[in-house]
Amino acid sequence: MPRARQTCYRSGCPRIATTAGACGNHARRYVDPRPPWSNTSARNQSRTPGWSALRLRILRRDGYRCYLCGSPKASEVDHITPVSAGGTDDPLNLAAACRGCHSAKTRRESQRGRSRP
């Protein structure tokens, strides 16, 4: 059986509720400051304290443009010199990268590491 239509939760508003008990005029509007293609998984946000802020700062600094292919949809931050090779989280060692380039570069670096005696 369909649910009965409810009026807006705001006192005196006769409009029909559309989301979370509010009409279109009274619904809370949240605007996410990140671009829609950004990677928001908990895995990347919990790396180290302050990583999320540093990551966002690097993406903005580079204009969300991949430093490897030039794509304007970079959503990840890459260590130019990998941490495993002595790289740091210094902003000079970080650059914006699109997901495809970042994963390809990471794959190449991990294969290089396995071939060493």
Question: Can I get a quick summary?
Answer:
Helix content is 26%, strand content 7%. The chain has three helices and two strands.
How would you portray this structure in words?
There is one protein chain. By secondary structure, this protein is α+β, with helices and mostly antiparallel strands. It has a domain at 49-114. Helix content is 26%, strand content 7%. The protein contains three helices and two strands; from the N terminus they run H-H-E-E-H. It has helices at 42-45, 51-61, 99-114, and strands at residues 76-79, 94-97. Strands 1-2 form a two-stranded antiparallel ribbon. The radius of gyration is 22 Å and the shape is elongated. It starts with 41 loop residues before the first helix and ends with a helix. The mean pLDDT is 80.
**Low-pLDDT segments:** none
Largest sheet: 2 strands, antiparallel
What is the average of the pLDDT values? Answer: 80
What is the number of helices?
3
The percentage of residues in β strands lies in 5-15%
| SSE string, helices as H and strands as E | HHEEH
Radius of gyration: 22 Å
- Overall structural class, as computed from helix and strand content, comes to alpha+beta
